[in-house]
Structures are given as C-alpha cells and as structure tokens.
Amino acid sequence: MGTWLTFSTCFVLSLSLSVDCKHMRDLSPLNKLPKVDVYAKGLKDRIPPISNADTKVRPIIYMHGIFGKADEKNFACQYIPSVVPGAVVYALDMFNGAESALNLDYQLEYIMPAMQKIMDNHTDTGVTLLCYSQGGVICRGVVQMLSTHNVHTFIALSSPLAGQFGVTGFVRHFTGLMNRSSLWEFWYSELGRWISVGDYWNDPHHQGEFSDPSKDIFLARLNNQTGHSQSQEYKKNFLKLEKLVMIGGPDDTVITPWQSAQLGFYNQNETVLPFEKQPWYERDEFGLRSLHKRGGIVRHTHPGVHHTQWYKTPEVFDKYIIPYLQ
User: Fold this and answer.
1) What secondary structure letter does DSSP report for 32?
2) Which residues pair with 189 in a beta bridge?
3) Which residue of the set 122, 199, 252, 302 is catalytic?
4) pLDDT, tens digit, for every residue of 153-165?
5) Strand bridging mode 243-248 / 265-266
6) Residue 326, pLDDT score
7) Which residues contact 176 (CB under 8 A, 6 or more apart)?
C-alpha cells in the first residue's frame, strides 16, 4: 500500500513538477529510518542518542516545509547553537524536495518513529518542535497523533495551521492559475488527497465536503471535525503541550490567509476570524481553548517578512524563537 501510494502520488507530481518517478526513493517499511542530522556547538556531529548530560537546554527538532531542500535547515541548525549555549538541533533528512508533496499521513508513518527515537533520548526534559510552513502541519499531526510524544513547546513558523485557501507559491505548482473557488473539487477528490496540499486545503464555502468523514481530510481530522474514533485521544495528546508559539505576518504573501499561521481563518463571507471565534475553539474540539485558558498559547506578528525568508531571518529568531528555547 505504501509503495503504491508513493508512485501514485509521483504520477500526479510528474504532471505538474516534471518529477522523475524512477528517482524517488522507495520509502517502504523495510527500509531503515532516514538519516537524522545533529547540530550542536562544541559537540561532534553524530546520530542520536545525545544524552541530557550533554546539554541542559531542551533539544530542538526542526521540520522543513514543502519542497524544502537540504540547505533549508542550515540557518536554524547553525544559528541556534551559536546563540544558545548547549543547544542541540536535530534535523530530519527526509521527504525533501518533491517527496514533501506526498500525502501527510504517509509521511507521518516515517516522521513519527524518527521523532520518537529522538524523544526517547530526552525523557527528562522533553523536546521543542520548530516547524516551518507545511512542516507546522506535520508537527501538529505529531503532537495530536503520537500518544507517546514529550513535546514541551511547539513553535510553528509561518505554517498553514488552519489551512490554505489561496493559489499562491507552492499551490500553483499543482493548479496553475486556476481560481480558488473551484479547486475544492480537485483537492477533496481521491486524486487530490494523494498530494499534501489536499490535506490542508480549507475551502470556507465547502465545509461539508471538508469535514466529510468519508473523505477523511487530514486537517479536518486534526480539528476533530470528522467525528473520527480517535478524537479524544487527539485532544489528550494535544493537551500534553506546555506552550504553542505561532509566528506569522501580513507580508507573507504565500500562506492564505496569513492569519492561518496563528490558527485564524476565513468564515463563509471570507472575513478572517481569530481562533477564538472558530467553531472548533468554541467547542474545544481538540483542546485549543483549554490550552489557551491555561496560558499556553503565544501569537507573534511580524511585518515585512516574505514567506521564504522566515526560516533564515535572524531578527525573527532573536525575537520569537530563541526566548522559548531556554
């Protein structure tokens, strides 16, 4: 099933990205987990485990965005240890480039065990997740779906946490300049759901289809809008978080609306409402209201940063990321 999904998705990707399916990795369960790179000032780079005796700072796991290449992680993995004494950053070398457009449930079959391996070596401190763009949706999946996680702080950096409803940047790779009003038919189809964007395409005018249990849209499931059998487990896992930090800004130009980076989203009139006015918050569907009431949510808005600059802007790290790593 996994290999079939990989190459079925690759066929779709080949139509829009000129991907050569023969050169996509076979990520079958028989293969070993992909490499995990480790960055720490003063420590020799090595595969985990790094014990808590090596550092008193909660370790950070970095998750890249869609179409992220190997060098995307460089700034975070080198800058953080240079300004935070004792910091260790783990970067998962998996689902890079076109592979990042694979279905998110499929990606999580490999990402969750890889992250669990790191978490198991830091049981006394827990870990911090630093997740950029689509990586934030993936990390939200880890936090809600992995019952054994020990994530203390989840930092989402310009991530479409409440969904995407705009034909910008990465979406145009698949849709061209098609009007967003008609794209739900593709993204909510069996074909569209093979691609990661379909997992968080959120059309405010077609919420019935978005939350249809038979379609099992990934983001709708995380919102506990589909009535799935693990909804209480997802909520319990989410509430293991101590801190959720959400960073975004009005000049992003890719995440649409940009407030999705802070769990805000459109209503049916396409008016952006903050998360406090979303139905799933009011009903505390996945625990966001509970986390908010105990002071566990932080929102940061920073103007003047384009989407592709968030992960390599020192000012963003200094103001909104470094303070939550100590």
Assistant:
1) P
2) none
3) 252
4) 999 999 999 999 9
5) unpaired
6) 78
7) none
Say what angle helices 2-17 and 104-119 make with each other, to 10 degrees.
Answer: 120
Question: What does DSSP say about strands 127-132 and 151-157: parallel, antiparallel, or unpaired?
Answer: parallel
**Rounded to two decimals, what is the model's pTM?**
0.86
Active site residue 252: yes
What is the rounded distance in angstroms from the CA atom of residue 71 to the CA atom of residue 174?
A: 24
Q: Within 13 Å and on the Cβ side, how many CA atoms surround 108?
A: 19
CA dihedral sign of residues 214, 218, 221, 223: negative
- CA neighbor of 239 nearest in space, from 185, 290, 166: 290
The yes-or-no answer on residue 8 being catalytic is no
Distance of CA 37 to the CA centre of its chain: 19
Q: Are 197 and 254 in contact (CB under 8 A)?
A: no
Q: In terms of Cα–Cα distance, which of 256, 89, 40, 100 is closest to 167?
A: 256
Structure tokens at 261: 């980076």
Cβ–Cβ under 8 Å, residues 187 and 180: no
Rg for the chain (alpha carbons), in Å?
A: 19
pLDDT in tens, 85-109: 889 999 988 899 889 999 999 999 9
Residue 144's nearest CA partner among 172, 180, 112 is 112
Average pLDDT over residues 273-277: 97
Contact between 60 and 127 under an 8 Å Cβ cutoff? The reply is yes
181 is an active site residue: no
Amino acid identity for residue 308 in this structure: T
Report whether the peptide linkage leading into residue 85 is cis, meaning its omega lies within 30 degrees of zero.
Answer: no
| Marked catalytic residue, from 100, 133, 196, 211 | 133
Q: What is the pLDDT of residues 299-309, one digit of tens each?
A: 999 999 999 99
Instruction: Give the whole-angstrom CA distance, residue 153 versus residue 44.
Output: 26
